[in-house]
Specification:
Oligomer: single chain
Protein name: Cytochrome c biogenesis protein DipZ
Largest sheet: 11 strands, antiparallel
Distance between the termini: 40 Å
Keywords: Membrane, Transmembrane, Transmembrane helix
Number of strands: 18
Strand content: 15-25%
Number of helices: 16
Structural class: alpha+beta
Helix content: 40-55%
Length: 575
């Protein structure tokens, strides 16, 4: 119930958000009509369409996104026709001649006696198609949750509740607007001029949406930004993980049964193996490791998983790495295959771009390990880094239960290097920081222009954990793309290591870069992907280690300048 209330309040606040501004003219265009017969059906159609489109986006992924783009195009045409009919009665008569029924719904005869409820609903549907893609971060949160867990009745109900909240605030605005327009018509006799003004506003709104002004310029110039309010609502609405890490088992203590090994049929492909099934794995102890190749926590735990594979593969252990991507580029099978080869992963890897296996385990984390006994039962799980000795004890206990003998002793000591080496253990190190606007924090270069090219300036000084852009960038939900050479990113960080997930542009051309620490070449503090002078090249979409401080985890100002355009920056992580 609390989630529904918060989603509803988030919808009510949408009227203060910049993205709702281009929709308002379409709503006020019905202000001089009876609310129950015109305004209410339009708002219901708008809310229902929003919930349907958003649910389809959760279910169908990319297909629905493309389908909705066609819906937007159709809606723009319909609403442009509406604007023309409002602007000129002669144009209205000419346009509606071939489509009398549609014309009667959209034309603005002032008496309203022949107003069609279904026409108002149709207008609401068209408006809903336009509004759905820019409905704000709460929609993004709900769709992300649906993508990870699968669409459900709960997801649709939350989306509909959010839409109804927005419809409520628009209904109040419509009621106030209706009184204003009625007063103008009675006192000034200006009905025709009001209608024409509304027509001009509708056409201006169509132009704004078609050109992207509604999600670009309006975001920057709006005096009523609700980003902070919406972010607090997101933090409150964000679902808590369904599971928590199990406590480390005590030596000799029986492990509980937590469930059974789910189906692996959701994998879209397999690396290093033919497709595996729970039935084929019966009699083997199985370790399922959820990972993704640009995740620093996954990379630091990977040497232990690889070492367990080498140590116990001939003693009844089967390790399955389930690759569930965080970023879009990690869905590309070729990228995953290249990463598997580069990282030296030799055990079976299941490709899980649709989160089918992830959902089957009800998983919430990268990395996550699930330990399955020879009877196909989940007996233990662990999340995140650390606890490797306890995990190896679980492996040995399950192998012993399965009847395997003469197991090799001791604990693995991988001796990992580079980005795979253990973290510094500094709990004050900077947090993971996303560059895309969907999850960006501590950005210090002013307002972010969503999906629009914009010239940024980095501030002269940064507080700890603040960062900024310089140069011409286009910031997307997941990344920032450099539009012109010599753009840079600056971060005031604390930690031994600094990593940044980067990729070349759509043309795949390498991008040269140069790194400085406190304005100087890094020298002995350079990372594995830079030299002592700070030079490096982005050649693939992956995590790059740019800094490894030779002496401790002090606070430094990091700057990376890209000498070529096209680079895409995703997220910082620290060690």
């Amino acid at each position: 119930m609390l989630l529904l209330i918060l989603a509803y309040l988030g919808g009510v606040l949408t009227i203060l958000s910049p993205c709702i501004l281009p929709v308002l003219p379409f709503v006020f265009a019905r202000a001089d009509r009876p609310f129950l017969k015109s305004g209410l059906p339009m708002l219901i159609g708008m809310a229902a369409t929003f919930a349907l489109v958003a649910t389809l986006a959760a279910v169908g992924g990319g297909w629905a996104v493309h389908a909705n783009q066609y819906g937007r195009a159709v809606a723009l045409v319909v609403l442009a026709l509406l604007g023309l009919t409002l602007l000129s009665s002669h144009v209205a008569e000419w346009l509606t001649r071939p489509f009398v029924a549609l014309g009667n719904r959209l034309s603005q005869h002032s008496d309203g006696e022949h107003e069609s409820i279904w026409g108002a609903v149709g207008l609401g549907i068209a408006t809903g198609l336009l509004w759905a893609p820019c409905a704000g971060p709460i929609l993004g949160l709900l769709l992300t949750g649906a993508a990870l867990k699968g669409a459900s009745v709960t997801t649709t109900l939350l989306l509909l509740t959010y839409a109804l909240g927005a419809a409520t605030s628009l209904a109040l605005a419509l009621a106030v607007g209706g009184k204003v327009f009625a007063l103008m018509k009675r006192s000034l006799g200006a009905g025709q001029w009001v209608r024409r003004a509304l027509g001009a506003l509708v056409l201006a709104g169509v132009a704004a949406i078609a050109s992207g002004v509604d999600t670009g310029v309006l975001t920057r110039v709006s005096l009523a930004s609700t980003n902070r309010i919406e972010q607090k609502l997101i933090d409150a609405v964000r679902p808590m993980p369904a599971a928590v890490a199990a406590p480390a088992p005590k030596p000799g203590e029986a492990l509980p049964v937590e469930g059974t090994l789910p189906s692996l049929a959701g994998a879209t492909g397999w690396l290093n193996s033919t497709p595996l099934t729970p039935a084929a794995l019966h009699g083997k102890v199985v370790l399922v490791d959820f990972w993704t190749y640009s995740c620093i926590n996954c990379l630091r735990s990977l040497p232990f998983v690889e070492a367990w594979h080498d140590k116990y593969k001939d003693h009844g252990l089967v390790i399955i790495g389930v690759h569930s991507p965080e970023f879009a580029f990690e869905k590309d099978p070729a990228n995953v295959a290249a990463a598997v080869q580069r990282l030296g992963v030799r055990y079976p890897v299941a490709l899980d771009p649709d989160y089918a296996i992830w959902q089957g385990f009800n998983n919430e984390y990268w990395p996550a390990e699930y330990f399955i006994d020879a009877q196909g039962r989940i007996r233990h799980h662990s999340f995140g880094e650390g606890g490797y000795a306890e995990d190896e004890d679980v492996i040995r206990q399950l192998l012993t239960e399965a009847g395997y003998k003469d197991l090799p002793g001791g604990y693995v000591q991988p001796g990992a290097k580079g980005a795979e080496a253990a973290s510094s253990g500094d709990y004050d190190r900077s947090p993971e920081t996303y560059v895309g606007y969907a999850r960006a924090d501590h950005f210090a270069s002013g307002q972010v222009a969503h999906d629009d090219a914009f010239g940024y300036r980095a501030p002269a000084t940064l507080a700890t954990n603040q960062w900024g852009l310089a140069g011409r960038w286009t910031v997307h939900a997941q990344d920032a793309t450099l539009d012109a050479a010599d753009g840079s990113i600056t971060y005031r960080f604390r930690g031994r290591d600094l990593h940044l997930v980067l990729g070349p542009g759509s043309d795949g051309k390498p991008v040269r870069f140069r790194v400085t620490l406190d304005g100087q070449a890094p020298g002995a503090d350079h990372g594995m992907d830079t030299d002592a002078d700070g030079n490096g090249t982005v050649t693939a979409q992956r995590l790059y280690q740019l800094v490894r401080q030779a002496h401790g985890t002090g606070e430094r100002t990091f700057t990376i300048t890209f000498l070529d355009p096209g680079v895409r920056a995703y997220a910082f992580t620290f060690g």
